[in-house]
Amino acid sequence: MKKFRGFYTTILFCILFIFCFTYKEDIVNFVMSSAVQNKEVTLPNDTEVNFNNYEFGFVKETNDFHVKNRQGILNVIYTVLNHGISDFTFYCDKSYDGCLDELENISRDQVLLSTINNFVSPYNSYERVYFKITTYGEVNMTTDKLYSDEEIRKIESKIAEFETTNIKDNMNVRDKIKAFHDYLINNSVYDKERAKAIENGNDSENNNSHKATGPLIDGIALCSGYSDAMKIYLDKLGVPNYKISNSNHIWNLVYLNGEWLHLDLTWDDPVTTDGSNILLHRFFLITTDELMKLDKNGHDFNSIYYPETKTS
Question: Cα 46 to chain center, whole Å?
């Protein structure tokens, strides 16, 4: 009888071993997935530097890092970037069946990710973003920052210098924005050589015209450099704002006196045939209706991403 009991025990063990070996990946995923559902996830404590506490229509701050739908994924990505976090892990909720597929799609959508980047401080924005997605619903997000600490120090020093020279106590917010708008245009030129190189797919220029250091430090800028510099200053003033972009251009949207207004420094600093430096105010704090009348094609954008631009 003992021999038969030992025989059946051996057979049962062998069957269990074969089952576990055959379905080991599914078993591991089940165990890991079950484990992460109850894992508490919070933001690090030291993430308030350059943090924007604004509510936007497209993405919002969240403290739910077990995502339950597509919007939840977008909100987590925005929150991580907005707080300047370089390495963060979040999870798919067990109720979200299509989570992994949606994450894969979002991680490959550079236009969408770049759009989310428009809502955060340039200091916290990414140059490259990476997602490591596991089959049991764990997502690790890491970023390479666009701005170094040294660049931030130089920008802050330059803005402080600007304010000392140009900002007066009796100025309202609009006056301060206009003063900075004029300062950037009067002290920089559009980088037409690099713009042409980018258009030809040969961007080999080694300068910072695509960042705020371009117009503020080097005196040369692309539209992204102008818009970054302006966003940094608007954030400093405490004015709700973000950048709007399409495949060819980027500019600023500003909430002032109860309405959202467009501000495009690039188009207010036109390239002239004789090389003269011209300062315009045609694209300074104008409504979406006014913008479309001036230049609809150059400022085409996806209103789903930027619902604050709704026209009258």
Answer: 19
The Cα–Cα gap between 101 and 237 comes to 40
Q: Which domains, from first to last, does the chain contain?
A: 66-145 (3.30.110), 149-309 (3.10.620)
Q: What is the pLDDT of residues 209-257, one digit of tens each?
A: 999 999 999 999 999 999 999 999 999 999 999 999 999 999 999 999 9
The pair of three-digit structure tokens given for residue 267, joined into one six-digit string: 């188009």
* Dist CA 164 CA 271 (whole Å): 29
- Which residue in 220, 246, 218, 216 sits closest to 231, CA to CA? 216
Written as six digits, the tokens of 140 are 């690790």
- Looking at residue 124, the DSSP 8-state letter turns out to be G
The first and second tokens of residue 88, run together, are 């963060």
The count of other CB atoms within 10 Å of the CB of residue 96 is 19
Alpha-helical regions (H) of the chain:
2-22, 24-37, 70-82, 99-108, 110-117, 149-166, 173-186, 192-199, 213, 223-237, 288-295
71-116 tens-digit pLDDT: 999 999 999 999 999 999 999 998 999 999 999 999 999 999 999 9
- C-beta of residue 112 within 8 angstroms of C-beta of residue 102: no
Q: Is the pTM of this model over 0.90?
A: no
Q: Can you tell me whether residue 68 is helix, strand or coil?
A: coil
Q: What is the DSSP letter of 252?
A: E
Q: Given the structure tokens 């994924």, which residue do they identify?
A: 73
Separation of alpha carbons 228 and 212, rounded Å? 5
How far apart are the C-alpha atoms of 222 and 138, rounded to whole Å? 38
